[in-house]
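To whoever is on call:

I kicked off a structure prediction for a single chain this morning and the downstream step that reads the tokens threw a length-mismatch warning. I double-checked the sequence; it's 145 residues and nothing unusual in it as far as I can see. Pasting both halves so you can look.
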Amino acid sequence: MKREFSISIPGEPIAQGRPRFSNRGGFVKAYDPKKSREGKQSVKFFVANKMEEEGASPLEGPLHMQIQFGIKLPTSQHRKRTPVPRKWRIKKPDLDNLIKLVKDACSGIVYLDDNQIVKISAEKIECAQGESPFTKLRFSVLDEI
């Protein structure tokens, strides 16, 4: 059985939005905002394709989730003479909302249920000038304590 899964997903990371509510026929229904729904579909697409390519089945047991989010440098901060290097991103979106979207999207594909994740290491950076935005994921099965 495989004990690890890694993937790099191109594109701007999207944070999980607040749930929206609608009232139809006296019943309240909660749903994901459109941007979150599309973000999850994108992550699912890349992850499912990689899992299928590798012929892997969902990981079992306690998991360590490592994530790096690379957010595009705003064009207003580009410099001609001294290109801007990578740096920590201390603005929105919040790291926990970025993690939530990826956890939800990978559930049932990379692992059976998100309660298997017992350890998370995550970082949010601003890409260097000219670097494309990305999301790097790595899931590994942990040994017993």
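Update from on-call: the warning came from a stale cache, not from the record. Cleared it. Sanity check on the structure: The beta strands are 4-10, 20-24, 27-31, 63-71, 87-88, 117-126, 134-141.
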